[in-house]
Structures
1.
Amino acid sequence: KHRPSAFEESLDLVRRLLAGEAVSSDGRFKFENARVSPRPPEPVEFWIGASARVAIERAARMGDGWLAAPSLAPAQAARQVSTYLEACDALGKDPGVVALRRDIYVGESEAEAHAVADPIIDAGYRGFDPGAPIAGSIDQVAAAFRGYAALGYTDIIVRHLTDDQDKVIRSLRRLKEVRQAVEEA
């Protein structure tokens, strides 16, 4: 009940502190002439993570960008990005960064990717919808990323599905080729 107003109040205070202002507050948070030192050398962007419609609309109103939940199935990711972009449009505001985390595995082939990822996903990976993680060949992962770009996502933040270090390193190397394929399209 009180979290949204506490969030809004604290975001305003943190923005002002990081901008170099001396800030006092007698609201929910009480302090006088607080400062942050040293200040960040560049302005700080605030990406707000949100899933509920009202929270996504708040992110559009108050944030410099939006971060979608990593567990979203593709259809949910499409609906939520649409909500965010529509809210930004209604506000006459540039949406900024529109980011989505995807848990991935880039395999040397489709078969190898599924041999690694499918048992992890089938075991109920992090409670995510099974359609949320992305596993496949370089071309398949690039195609999935391009699909999210077409919906309006500007950034994909990746986390690897497996914790096998050797497989993660190889997937990371192939991720460079995924990036090149996405940029060339």
Note: Residues 37 and 143 are 44 Å apart (CA to CA).
2.
Amino acid sequence: GEGLVLRDGKRYRCHCRTEAIIRYLLPVRYHEARLADFGKGLMEAVTDWLDKPTDGLFLMGGAGTGKTHLAAGIVRYQVARGRRAIFKRAAQLFQALRDSYGKEGITEEMILHDYIEAPLLILDDLGAGSLSDHERRSTLEILDRRMNAMLSTVVTSNWNVAAISERMDERVGSRLATYKLISFEGEDKRTA
């Protein structure tokens, strides 16, 4: 099977299988990220949301405030519970789509499939790209199709919803406005 064990009436992956999946899904810097790295209140808010997810969770704040670390902790938590999650930087999505053009046997829809069908998608650092029409259209397509399929998405961004609406696309901002917001404040921990 999938290396699942039963504990307290809930399914969890065995530790070795969990770690192998996490190492595959996450950048090396975030292999050890855990929800417990954050305060009890934030950890409970996230686990409550994961138990009863809505359209999405929007992690917004300045550079280096912990958004990606929390998103990676969400991946670890989900994988340990035997649930599937995909973690991708928005730039990876856009690059994969660009790389598919002109390649025989690979279509844009094939690339989008994993992003659209994943039970939980973490889309990291939205708005950090060139903001081309292609990026705007692709982002809207993913968010829209996931919402229509009742699949939850976690999005991280340095921008708030108003900035995304103004700089990227008001339709993307409108969808993100339905997400539960967690706002990160403070100094850039990387430079502190």
Note: The first helix runs from residue 15 to 25.
3.
Amino acid sequence: MGEPPAGWSIAPFPDDPVASPDRDEVEFVVPDWQIARELHALPALKVVQTRSAGVEWIVGRVPDGVTLCSARGARDAAMAEWVAWALLADAKAARTAAEQQVARVWEHLDLRDVEGARVLILGHGSIGAAVERRLAAFDARIVRVARRARDGVHAVDELPCLLPSADVVVNLLPATEETRGLVGAEALAAMPRGGLLVNAGRGSTVDTDALLRALHAGHVRAVLDVTEPEPLPADHPLWSAPGLIVTPHSAGDTPGAERKAWALAGDQLRRHAAGEPLRNVVSGGY
């Protein structure tokens, strides 16, 4: 976080904030999952700064009158690199290659092209823009979709018209009531047979049962960093579903992303101390 502002100190969150002698002085918190349950024990709290872009895990735990800020932008590069890997891993048959290596089988792989693929980015914000920049090197054709239409970006309600021509759907949607199950049976059926779903957003945005049916029918393939439920139980049918690669919600967790998230938190603390406007203030779950 760098040097604290004059007159401020940075300390680890106490195990028992209620018993902490300093709890009446805490104004700014950078929480993790466990700390999120303790925020109401801090009467002077003014700002909660997450180190994640998604805030659904904490938005309902922030006391009234306290400003919640996300780490939007800090993990863009890491997330975009994972999405690029996901497209390449699918196109270049990474799962099959790994299985053949374990079995010591030398057999030709059926590979696909990323060049020329029509990639629909669902939830085109800062991460989507970072994905687009990286896919430009592969000459992929990008279709941008967001909550509301703007120049060069389609509105989410246009999906039924856009999905039938999408070779790849990259889902970067946050978890909100509006996005829950948005990628369901209807959306998956609208994708062309052999299409690829990449989910680096939140698991709740995809109907898991519908995805399983589409995978087993061979209608789509998928690469998922997030699932519903999560963590994925050992006996869950997603583990053995055909045409699927799963990673354990790790796409944005790289050393560079962590450095950027902590640096953002330090900058936000200095802004708060100086009475300057904060960045990434969360409104309506975004």
Note: The helical segments are 76-91, 94-103, 126-135, 159-162, 185-190, 208-216, 255-274.
